[in-house]
Amino acid sequence: MSDKLALAPASIGLQRLTKQYGSTAAVRDVDLDIRAGEFMTFLGPSGSGKTTTLNMIAGFVEPTNGDVLVDGRSVRAVPTHKRGMGMVFQGYTLFPHLSVGDNVGFPLKQRGIAKKKRRQLVQEALGTVELDGFEDRSPRELSGGQQQRVSLARAIVYRPPVLLMDEPLGALDKRLRDALQEEIRAIHRQIGTTFIYVTHDQEEALSLSDRIAVYKDGRIEQVGTPSDLYDRPATLFVARFLGESTLLRGEVDASDLSALRIGSRRIPVTNPNKVSGAAIAMIRPERLRLLPPGDATGALEVRVLNEIYLGHVRKLAISLPDGTTGVVRESPGLTSTLAPGDSARLAWDAADAVVLPTE
Amino acid sequence: MTRRWPLWVVVGVIAAWLVAPTLVVVPLSFTGARSLSFPPQEWSLRWYENFFENGKWLASLLNSLQLALIVSVAATVLGTLAAYGLSRHRVRGAGATNALLLAPMLVPSVVFGVGTYALFLKLHLVGTFAGFAAAHTALAIPFVMIPVSSALVTFDSTMERAARVCGAGTAATFWSVTLPAIAPGVLAGAMFAFVTSFDEVVVSIFLSSPYLETLPVRMFNSLEREVDPTLAAAATLIICFTTALIAIGLTASSRRSRVR
């Protein structure tokens, strides 16, 4: 391996990173430490600041305030082309006048790597994305999925210490997205580079990432592993963004943090953030069980509104005593015979009802 | 099938109206007579012979060709850089700069000619090749900026980000990614610049001297002093030349866009 090519994955530190456009802040005081080799995803709705953060890491956008550190050193004064990062964009961005081979070899050429070595590295990179022998094709001849693979090969061919991906699967259809997701995960395992991945698709984030930073209005709302965020969200926004849930509204007394009061009922909950006062208990659909109407182990009386049959499982929309709706996902093999209009008792384990502050 | 012939008649009339005055020159150039009378009574190639044997005519043609070539190179380089700079950097005064650069296209030629003449007299540039080149380049820059700017609008600038992240600096990014993408616009601009210079009469009349005149100036002077059909022969040659140039340009650009 040439010494002009970086090898070791780098850590990225964001310190009070801020980007102000006029009087509105696209990114506000973002602090985050991304470990070397980690797969970090920025997840959030559009306009929440995730792409702006990525662009500041890449050097396309200059921060108004704060700093970006690569392996502990500030890169504020380093222009994009000297940061040595790799990047995959949503729109493929292959150079149309160059062949696939020359596209992948482009970063190597910029680094002054000899032609022979270049050809070998291009071949390896195309092999990694399963496009062996595509060197002489024109990008125009390729499908969207193939083009995105080529741009992935172009981003990894020089073994960048950090690989940035800005909604790389956004322009592809569902089937291709799943296949490429699989490939991206395999490439991450294979090359071990630090990945920073931007998406608004929560399934993608959950299935790919080591950790996820959820963005809202220019700030990071919560950082954690996929299961942290899914099972133990810190806010209602995170809970909603990462999947469906049933929400129970009530009060938590400061003297009894492990119970939610709904009227006269006392419902056992888990309260990792020690929330008190008006609060919401959040339960994921697969953690809920529907029992026959008379069953005393059920905590709440509910009514089935309608069912969605998904093949392997059934999802039921239910009406809660306070008139709001919730959702139950029956596990495979445990489907009940309940039909829309039926009454039932709703049950769950206290550990699965997470108390969140109201918004 | 609806009746299309009325449409064709209208199109034919408009086309004839546009082209006829130009084409009248062609038979005139083959006349055997000493005057520009239409239609010609006898036919001859003597005026073409005269064009190529008379030193003044040939010299003016060579002047025009050299000048147009230099102007098209200079205006293409400067116009492309100006369009690129103005599209990529939202600096203060960008709008004003843009308007200023396009002004030579909008200001009446006579006004531009008088101003240039007054200025160049002081700079001793009247009647010099450099003076011609400078004035024509200023006139041609807008004709480069317009096609290049529109090519830049359709060019996806994330391509440039992709190139920079790949390790290409500003200059390398421009050469290896931006320029190939906007090449059709740049070529069109170069062609327009060439024709602008090759065609220019008004400003050139101000700048010419008895020792340095361009082909259009020569033609204009010939009309005033000699009134012989060599003028028509020169005009016919120009028609053939510019038509060929534009035809080549159009086929080249349409082939390019079909590939896309």
Describe this structure in words.
The complex is a heterodimer of chains A (359) and B (260). Chain A has helices at 50-58, 80-83, 100-110, 115-128, 144-156, 174-191, 202-208, 226-231, 236-241; strands at residues 12-21, 24-34, 39-43, 65-70, 73-74, 86-88, 162-166, 194-199, 211-216, 219-224, 246-253, 256-262, 265-268, 277-283, 289-291, 300-309, 314-319, 325-330, 343-347, 354-357. With 359 residues, chain A is of the alpha+beta class. Chain A has two domains: 12-231, P-loop containing nucleotide triphosphate hydrolases (Rossmann fold, 3-Layer(aba) Sandwich), CATH 3.40.50; 244-357, no CATH class. In chain A, the strands form four sheets. Chain A has a six-stranded mixed β-sheet with strand order 6-7-8-3-9-10, with helices on both faces. The longest helix of chain A is centred in the middle third of the chain and has 18 residues, at 174-191. In chain A, 40% of the residues are buried. The model of chain A has no long low-confidence stretch (mean pLDDT 90). Chain B has one domain (52-259): MetI-like fold (Orthogonal Bundle), CATH 1.10.3720. The A-B interface holds A 58-60, 79-87, 89, 91, 93, 95-97, 106-107, 110-111, 140, 151, 154-155, 158, 164 and B 156, 158-159, 161-169, 172-173, 176-177, 180-181, 259-260.
